[in-house]
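Researcher: Re-running this chain for the archive, since the previous output was lost when a drive failed. Same request as before.
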Amino acid sequence: MSSTPFQGVVTPEAVVLDFESAGVGSRSAAAAIDLIIRSVVLTLISIASAILSGVTSDFPTWFFITLFTLVTFFITAGYSIAFETLLHGRTPGKAALGLRVITTEGSPIRFRHAAIRGFLGLLEIAGTFGVVAAVTIFASKRNQRLGDLVAGTIVLRERRAEHQPVATHFQPPPGTEDYAFTLDASRLSTDEYLTLRSFLTRATQLAPAARQGLAEQLGRQFARRMATEPPHWMPAEVFLICVASAYQRRFAGSEPTNYAAQ
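Model: Regenerated structure tokens:
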């Protein structure tokens, strides 16, 4: 199955990403690379275990067999969990194929996401030779296997381009910082933020009258959506910048840099 477009994903830096969800083919290739790496590691451990069991009589043979079995389990289960946690959604195989796991909201995955994917992967991939994973990926609109659906994640194929997207951060204009901090952006959806971001990044390209009219229209919509009333002295576009800053603070957790209405 080929990759399918998946738009509307926003990174923790509030960058709209033009990525594609990874299909069965690329994910299988990445899994094959990871399998080879795990197999090499387990082979080396097996050789070391055989050597140690042959040169020492301090421990019985069953001890080394049990130890190897436990190590095999932890490597099989913990390989993807450890790498996806430490490498922000990547294993060596995924990195080689340009794949990355993120949450469906566009944030980096955490340990709990990787753990859910890893342990369910033992059942749907290792336990069924990948049949369950392949079926759910084909059936899912976003090419998600069972572990992705439960963890709330998606595997993306990163498009390589000469010009990488530049993060756009929104900082409340001077004097509005305290007000922006009081705004609750948890009600806003990703699509609503994308609309807001699109206006703010293109406002300077609009005619003054159109810019002001659209800002006032969006300001009323976002004020109703967030159940708030901006100060009477605050221009609509300044209010929208405060909303964008609140959204980034709520969902991104990153420190914004300067952006001011022009």
